[in-house]
Design goal:
It is a single chain. By secondary structure, the chain is α/β, with parallel strands linked by helices. The chain has 2 domains: 168 residues, 3-Layer(aba) Sandwich (Rossmann fold); 93 residues, Pantoate-beta-alanine ligase, C-terminal domain (Pantoate--beta-alanine Ligase, Chain: A,domain 2, 2-Layer Sandwich). The chain contains 10 helices and 9 strands. Strands 1-4-3-2-5-6 form a 6-stranded parallel sheet, with helices on both faces. Strands 7-8-9 form a 3-stranded antiparallel sheet, with helices on one face. It starts with a strand and ends with a strand.
Amino acid sequence: MILTRTAADLAALPRGERRVVVMTMGALHEGHLSLIRRAKDLGDQVIVTVFVNPLQFDELTDYERYPRTLEADLALLEPLGVDAVFAPSEAEMYPAGVPAVSVSAGVIGRVLEGAARPGHFDGVVTVVAKLLHLTAPHVAVFGAKDAQQVIAVRALVRDLNIPVEIATVATQRDDDGLARSSRNVFLSAAERASALALSGAVFAAAAAAESGASLTDVLATGRAVLAAEPGVNLDYFVAMNPADASELAGDYRGDVVIAVAARVGDTRLIDNITTRVGR
Protein backbone atom coordinates (compact mmCIF):
# COMPACT_ATOMS: atom_id res chain seq x y z
CA MET A 1 0.00 0.00 0.00
CA ILE A 2 1.43 3.35 -1.08
CA LEU A 3 0.86 6.49 0.96
CA THR A 4 0.76 9.66 -1.13
CA ARG A 5 0.60 13.18 0.24
CA THR A 6 0.69 15.33 -2.89
CA ALA A 7 -1.26 15.57 -6.12
CA ALA A 8 1.98 15.02 -8.05
CA ASP A 9 2.71 11.74 -6.26
CA LEU A 10 -0.88 10.64 -6.75
CA ALA A 11 -0.68 11.37 -10.48
CA ALA A 12 2.51 9.30 -10.71
CA LEU A 13 0.80 6.11 -9.55
CA PRO A 14 0.42 3.39 -12.18
CA ARG A 15 -3.20 3.20 -13.30
CA GLY A 16 -5.28 0.05 -13.04
CA GLU A 17 -7.75 -1.05 -15.67
CA ARG A 18 -10.65 -0.20 -13.37
CA ARG A 19 -9.77 2.26 -10.59
CA VAL A 20 -12.15 2.70 -7.66
CA VAL A 21 -11.97 5.48 -5.07
CA VAL A 22 -13.38 5.64 -1.56
CA MET A 23 -13.37 9.15 -0.08
CA THR A 24 -13.15 9.48 3.70
CA MET A 25 -12.30 11.99 6.39
CA GLY A 26 -10.43 9.33 8.34
CA ALA A 27 -11.29 8.06 11.83
CA LEU A 28 -12.20 4.87 10.01
CA HIS A 29 -14.70 2.36 11.35
CA GLU A 30 -16.45 -0.73 10.03
CA GLY A 31 -18.77 1.41 7.92
CA HIS A 32 -15.82 2.76 5.96
CA LEU A 33 -14.27 -0.69 5.68
CA SER A 34 -17.46 -2.02 4.11
CA LEU A 35 -17.08 0.61 1.38
CA ILE A 36 -13.53 -0.56 0.72
CA ARG A 37 -14.56 -4.21 0.53
CA ARG A 38 -17.20 -3.21 -2.01
CA ALA A 39 -14.60 -1.21 -3.92
CA LYS A 40 -12.40 -4.30 -4.13
CA ASP A 41 -15.30 -6.11 -5.82
CA LEU A 42 -15.81 -3.30 -8.34
CA GLY A 43 -12.29 -2.81 -9.66
CA ASP A 44 -8.69 -3.89 -9.75
CA GLN A 45 -7.18 -0.79 -8.10
CA VAL A 46 -8.51 0.88 -4.94
CA ILE A 47 -7.51 4.33 -3.75
CA VAL A 48 -8.71 5.64 -0.39
CA THR A 49 -8.59 9.35 0.31
CA VAL A 50 -8.23 10.66 3.87
CA PHE A 51 -8.89 14.38 4.19
CA VAL A 52 -10.79 16.36 6.81
CA ASN A 53 -12.35 18.95 4.53
CA PRO A 54 -12.72 22.34 6.23
CA LEU A 55 -15.19 23.61 3.62
CA GLN A 56 -17.96 21.32 4.80
CA PHE A 57 -17.89 22.35 8.47
CA ASP A 58 -20.13 25.21 9.51
CA GLU A 59 -18.69 25.31 13.02
CA LEU A 60 -14.95 25.78 13.61
CA THR A 61 -15.07 23.84 16.87
CA ASP A 62 -16.66 20.87 15.08
CA TYR A 63 -13.84 20.92 12.51
CA GLU A 64 -11.14 21.21 15.15
CA ARG A 65 -12.43 18.34 17.26
CA TYR A 66 -13.04 15.97 14.36
CA PRO A 67 -10.89 12.90 15.11
CA ARG A 68 -7.67 12.59 13.10
CA THR A 69 -6.21 9.09 13.37
CA LEU A 70 -4.14 8.54 10.23
CA GLU A 71 -1.75 5.95 11.66
CA ALA A 72 -4.63 3.85 12.98
CA ASP A 73 -6.46 4.30 9.68
CA LEU A 74 -3.48 3.04 7.70
CA ALA A 75 -3.25 -0.01 9.94
CA LEU A 76 -6.89 -0.82 9.15
CA LEU A 77 -6.48 -0.29 5.41
CA GLU A 78 -3.31 -2.33 4.84
CA PRO A 79 -4.90 -5.79 5.39
CA LEU A 80 -7.76 -4.96 3.02
CA GLY A 81 -5.48 -4.78 0.00
CA VAL A 82 -5.87 -1.05 -0.64
CA ASP A 83 -3.43 -0.03 -3.37
CA ALA A 84 -2.88 3.58 -2.35
CA VAL A 85 -3.95 6.16 0.21
CA PHE A 86 -4.08 9.85 -0.66
CA ALA A 87 -3.82 11.88 2.56
CA PRO A 88 -3.13 15.48 1.53
CA SER A 89 -2.66 18.44 3.83
CA GLU A 90 -5.09 21.33 3.81
CA ALA A 91 -2.42 23.43 2.06
CA GLU A 92 -2.09 20.78 -0.65
CA MET A 93 -5.81 20.75 -1.33
CA TYR A 94 -6.39 24.49 -0.94
CA PRO A 95 -3.04 26.22 -1.56
CA ALA A 96 -4.64 29.68 -1.67
CA GLY A 97 -6.80 29.10 1.39
CA VAL A 98 -10.52 29.28 0.71
CA PRO A 99 -10.82 28.60 -3.02
CA ALA A 100 -11.87 31.48 -5.26
CA VAL A 101 -13.91 29.04 -7.37
CA SER A 102 -16.08 26.36 -5.80
CA VAL A 103 -19.08 24.18 -6.67
CA SER A 104 -22.65 24.81 -5.53
CA ALA A 105 -24.98 21.99 -4.55
CA GLY A 106 -27.92 24.18 -5.59
CA VAL A 107 -31.29 23.51 -4.00
CA ILE A 108 -30.10 20.11 -2.70
CA GLY A 109 -27.66 22.01 -0.51
CA ARG A 110 -30.31 24.26 1.01
CA VAL A 111 -32.79 21.75 2.42
CA LEU A 112 -32.73 19.41 5.42
CA GLU A 113 -29.03 18.84 6.25
CA GLY A 114 -28.21 21.84 4.07
CA ALA A 115 -30.62 24.07 5.97
CA ALA A 116 -29.22 22.90 9.30
CA ARG A 117 -25.62 23.29 8.11
CA PRO A 118 -25.43 26.18 5.64
CA GLY A 119 -22.73 25.71 3.04
CA HIS A 120 -22.07 22.11 4.05
CA PHE A 121 -23.02 20.50 0.75
CA ASP A 122 -21.25 23.17 -1.28
CA GLY A 123 -18.12 22.13 0.61
CA VAL A 124 -18.87 18.46 0.01
CA VAL A 125 -19.40 18.70 -3.74
CA THR A 126 -16.38 21.02 -4.11
CA VAL A 127 -14.02 18.56 -2.44
CA VAL A 128 -15.62 15.58 -4.19
CA ALA A 129 -15.13 17.30 -7.55
CA LYS A 130 -11.47 17.98 -6.71
CA LEU A 131 -10.85 14.43 -5.53
CA LEU A 132 -12.56 12.94 -8.57
CA HIS A 133 -10.30 14.99 -10.84
CA LEU A 134 -7.21 14.09 -8.81
CA THR A 135 -7.88 10.37 -8.52
CA ALA A 136 -9.61 9.95 -11.92
CA PRO A 137 -11.53 6.80 -10.95
CA HIS A 138 -13.91 4.69 -12.97
CA VAL A 139 -16.08 4.19 -9.86
CA ALA A 140 -16.52 6.09 -6.57
CA VAL A 141 -18.13 4.34 -3.61
CA PHE A 142 -20.20 6.16 -0.97
CA GLY A 143 -22.18 5.08 2.08
CA ALA A 144 -25.97 5.18 1.98
CA LYS A 145 -26.06 6.54 5.55
CA ASP A 146 -25.27 9.98 4.12
CA ALA A 147 -28.31 9.84 1.84
CA GLN A 148 -28.47 13.53 0.98
CA GLN A 149 -24.75 13.55 0.23
CA VAL A 150 -25.23 10.68 -2.22
CA ILE A 151 -28.04 12.60 -3.93
CA ALA A 152 -25.80 15.69 -4.20
CA VAL A 153 -22.86 13.70 -5.56
CA ARG A 154 -25.02 11.97 -8.16
CA ALA A 155 -26.27 15.40 -9.27
CA LEU A 156 -22.68 16.68 -9.39
CA VAL A 157 -21.43 13.98 -11.75
CA ARG A 158 -24.59 14.12 -13.87
CA ASP A 159 -24.78 17.89 -14.26
CA LEU A 160 -21.03 18.47 -14.73
CA ASN A 161 -20.59 15.42 -16.97
CA ILE A 162 -17.91 13.85 -14.80
CA PRO A 163 -17.25 10.37 -16.23
CA VAL A 164 -17.53 8.26 -13.09
CA GLU A 165 -19.98 5.66 -11.79
CA ILE A 166 -21.34 6.28 -8.28
CA ALA A 167 -21.89 3.11 -6.23
CA THR A 168 -23.38 2.91 -2.74
CA VAL A 169 -23.20 0.54 0.21
CA ALA A 170 -26.01 0.07 2.73
CA THR A 171 -25.75 1.73 6.13
CA GLN A 172 -23.56 -0.27 8.50
CA ARG A 173 -24.83 -0.64 12.07
CA ASP A 174 -23.53 -1.81 15.41
CA ASP A 175 -25.24 -4.78 17.06
CA ASP A 176 -27.61 -2.45 18.90
CA GLY A 177 -28.76 -0.86 15.62
CA LEU A 178 -26.93 2.46 15.93
CA ALA A 179 -25.63 3.62 12.55
CA ARG A 180 -21.85 3.59 12.56
CA SER A 181 -20.33 7.06 12.53
CA SER A 182 -17.01 8.62 13.43
CA ARG A 183 -19.00 10.94 15.71
CA ASN A 184 -20.21 8.07 17.90
CA VAL A 185 -16.96 8.26 19.89
CA PHE A 186 -18.23 11.53 21.39
CA LEU A 187 -21.26 9.83 22.98
CA SER A 188 -21.28 8.91 26.65
CA ALA A 189 -22.89 5.60 27.61
CA ALA A 190 -26.14 7.38 28.52
CA GLU A 191 -26.10 9.41 25.32
CA ARG A 192 -25.53 6.31 23.24
CA ALA A 193 -28.58 4.71 24.83
CA SER A 194 -30.61 7.81 23.91
CA ALA A 195 -29.19 7.80 20.37
CA LEU A 196 -30.77 4.40 19.73
CA ALA A 197 -34.06 6.26 19.31
CA LEU A 198 -32.85 7.42 15.87
CA SER A 199 -32.48 3.92 14.48
CA GLY A 200 -35.59 2.85 16.38
CA ALA A 201 -37.57 5.62 14.69
CA VAL A 202 -36.51 4.81 11.14
CA PHE A 203 -37.05 1.07 11.70
CA ALA A 204 -40.52 1.71 13.12
CA ALA A 205 -41.38 3.98 10.21
CA ALA A 206 -40.20 1.39 7.69
CA ALA A 207 -42.27 -1.29 9.42
CA ALA A 208 -45.33 0.96 9.21
CA ALA A 209 -44.69 1.46 5.50
CA GLU A 210 -44.35 -2.29 5.02
CA SER A 211 -47.75 -2.75 6.67
CA GLY A 212 -49.37 -0.40 4.16
CA ALA A 213 -49.65 2.77 6.25
CA SER A 214 -49.90 6.17 4.57
CA LEU A 215 -46.85 8.41 4.55
CA THR A 216 -48.51 10.64 7.17
CA ASP A 217 -48.90 7.66 9.50
CA VAL A 218 -45.42 6.35 8.69
CA LEU A 219 -43.90 9.63 9.83
CA ALA A 220 -46.13 9.82 12.90
CA THR A 221 -44.96 6.35 13.93
CA GLY A 222 -41.31 7.33 13.78
CA ARG A 223 -41.82 10.66 15.51
CA ALA A 224 -43.55 8.93 18.40
CA VAL A 225 -40.42 6.87 19.03
CA LEU A 226 -38.28 10.02 19.08
CA ALA A 227 -40.72 11.93 21.30
CA ALA A 228 -40.47 9.18 23.91
CA GLU A 229 -36.71 9.75 24.33
CA PRO A 230 -35.98 13.00 26.22
CA GLY A 231 -32.26 12.77 25.49
CA VAL A 232 -32.85 13.43 21.77
CA ASN A 233 -33.08 17.02 20.52
CA LEU A 234 -34.76 16.50 17.16
CA ASP A 235 -33.79 18.57 14.13
CA TYR A 236 -35.97 16.80 11.57
CA PHE A 237 -37.72 13.52 10.82
CA VAL A 238 -38.96 13.58 7.25
CA ALA A 239 -39.67 11.65 4.10
CA MET A 240 -37.06 12.59 1.51
CA ASN A 241 -37.42 12.20 -2.24
CA PRO A 242 -34.51 9.91 -3.25
CA ALA A 243 -34.14 11.80 -6.54
CA ASP A 244 -33.62 15.36 -5.30
CA ALA A 245 -33.77 15.40 -1.46
CA SER A 246 -37.02 17.38 -1.45
CA GLU A 247 -39.47 16.74 1.40
CA LEU A 248 -42.45 14.62 0.39
CA ALA A 249 -46.09 15.28 1.21
CA GLY A 250 -48.32 12.93 3.21
CA ASP A 251 -50.24 11.56 0.20
CA TYR A 252 -47.08 10.50 -1.66
CA ARG A 253 -46.80 6.92 -2.86
CA GLY A 254 -43.52 5.36 -4.03
CA ASP A 255 -39.91 5.02 -2.97
CA VAL A 256 -38.91 7.24 -0.06
CA VAL A 257 -35.95 7.86 2.23
CA ILE A 258 -37.05 8.24 5.86
CA ALA A 259 -34.38 10.56 7.27
CA VAL A 260 -33.66 11.80 10.77
CA ALA A 261 -31.19 14.25 12.29
CA ALA A 262 -30.88 15.10 15.96
CA ARG A 263 -28.47 16.19 18.64
CA VAL A 264 -27.72 13.84 21.49
CA GLY A 265 -25.74 15.79 24.02
CA ASP A 266 -23.31 17.87 21.96
CA THR A 267 -23.19 15.37 19.08
CA ARG A 268 -25.26 15.70 15.93
CA LEU A 269 -26.27 12.37 14.41
CA ILE A 270 -28.13 11.31 11.28
CA ASP A 271 -29.76 8.11 10.11
CA ASN A 272 -32.08 6.99 7.34
CA ILE A 273 -33.76 4.03 5.75
CA THR A 274 -35.14 3.57 2.25
CA THR A 275 -38.58 2.04 1.92
CA ARG A 276 -41.70 2.22 -0.23
CA VAL A 277 -45.03 3.76 0.71
CA GLY A 278 -48.27 2.58 -0.90
CA ARG A 279 -47.28 -0.89 -1.93
